[in-house]
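This part of the workshop introduces the protein records we will be handling. To make this concrete, we reproduce a full record directly below.
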Amino acid sequence: MTNPIADVLKSETILVTGSNTTDNHPIFANYIKEAVFRKGANLIVVDPRRIDLVDHAHIWLRQRPGTDIAWINGLIHIILKENLHAADYIRERTEGFAALEKAVEKYTPRHVSEITGIPVPDLRKAALMYGKARPASILYTMGITQHTNGTDTVMALANLAMVCGNIGVEGGGINPLRGQNNVQGACDMGALPNVLPAYQQVSNSELREKFSRAWGVTLSDKPGLTVVEITHAAEAGRVKGLYIVGENPLLSDPDLTHVKAAFEKLDFLVVQDIFMTETARAADVVLPSACFAEKDGTFTNSERLVQRVRKAIPAPGEARADWEIISALSTRLGYPMNYNNPREIMEEISSLAPSYAGITYARLEKEEIAWPCPTLNHPGTRMLHKDQFVRGKGLFQAIEYAAPAEIPDDEYPLILTTGRVLYHYHTGSMTRIGRGINERCPESLIEINPADAQNLGIDSGMMVDVSSRRGKVRVKAKVTDRLPTGTVFMNFHFREAAVNLLTNPALDPVSKIPELKACAVKVEAA
C-alpha cells in the first residue's frame, strides 16, 4: 500500500474495485464506512457482484468480469475531456503522459459501455466523482490481479491515480489490500522467484555478490519458478521434489485435476503446516509447525508496518516455529544455520535489506515501523512517493484492453468468478474446524441470476453440476440477483465442491498469476 489504512478517512472519494472488502477485509471495511458516514467521503464500488459494500456506495459500476482495463481507461478518457486532470502534477512529477493520452482516446463512454456493460451515465458520474476529488484513494485486491492481464490492470489503476495527482498525498494512493497477515513480509523477505530480500533482483551481479559474501555461497542469477510453473515442471519431470510451507495447492491452485496429476509424479513431497491439509495428506513427510500465537518474530502487514509477534502459548506436540524447522533442515543438509532466536534473524535482515536497515527489536518493543526505514534514527515511511517517485518520475503506461483468456460460447455459456465468504478463510484448513463458523456457512453454493436459473430450470436449494473445459463439480444452487445474467459465483473454501477443478490456469505473462476470476462454464440441474 502506498498509504496507511487510516488515510481513507482523509479521502474525498474512495474507489473500491476487485475487493469484497466487508467479507475479505472487514476491519478495513469499517474504515471505509467511517469515511463515508462520518467524514462525508464519496464511495465508488466497481464489482460484477452486488457485494455488501454496494449498499453504502454513491455509485456502483457493474462490469463484466475481466473488462477492468476498459472502464479504467474510460474514466481517464472522461477526466481528460472534462479537464479534471492534475496538469501541474503531471508536468512536474510524471512522464509518458502523451502516450497515455493517445491510448485512451478511443475509450469513449459508448465504446467502454459496449465492452463492460456499464451504462454511459454511470461511467460519467464515476469519472466526475473521482476526477473532482482532491484527494481520492483506490483500493483493490485479487479481483483485479487474478487475470491474464492483471499486471496491466494494476498499471492502469496507477495511471488513473497519477492523472488526478493522487499518489504521494494524504488521503490518496493506490492500495492493494493484502490477503494474509504476513504475505507482505514474506514477499519482503524474498519469497518470490526473481528477487532476494527487499526486492533486490537476482539478476543484479552486485546484489548477488553482497548476499554471497554474507551467506558464504554462490547464488544463481537464474530466477526460479512461480507456483503454476512449478506444477507444469513437475508434470514434465523437471521438478522432482517439493517443499511446501503453509500452502495448500491441492485445493487452492487452478485446474486441480492437472495439479494432482503433477504431484503424483513427484519423487518426494514435504509439507510444513499447522493442520493436516489436503496437500499434507499427500506428502511423504509432514513437518508440524507452530501457529502465530506459538512463536516469536515479526509480521509485516498490508500498510508495510513491521509488528512484533510474541509467543503466548507453547506449541503442541512436536510442532516447532518455522525458522527452527528450516534452520534444522538446512543444517542437516550441509548448510549450517546457527540462529539462536528470531532477534538474530532480524539483525541479519537489517544488514542485508536496505528498506529494513533501521528496524530492530529494540525499536519494535516501543513502536511499529513502516518500511522503508533506512537508518536507526529514521521514523519509517507511512506514505510512499511523497516528494518524488522511487524511480524519479512516475511513468504512465499506454495500456490496452484484452478479453479474458476464456470467454463464453455455446458449450460453456456462463462466466464463473470466484472469491471468499466472510465466515471462511482460503482453503478452510483453519476455519472449517470451528463449529460455530460451520454452522453459519456449512457448505459451498453457486450463486446464479434468477433469469439464468429460470432458463436452466434451476431453483434455490437444487443440486447442480458445474462444468468447464477442465472438470466438473456438484454444488447447491442459490438463486440471487447479486449476480448479473451470464455470470455465476462460487467460493473456494470447500473440498467437497472444489471450484478450482474448474478454473483456468492461463497466466499473466508478467506476474505469472493464474486467471482465477474468469472462466467459461455451463450449469445443469444434477
Notes: The radius of gyration is 24 Å.
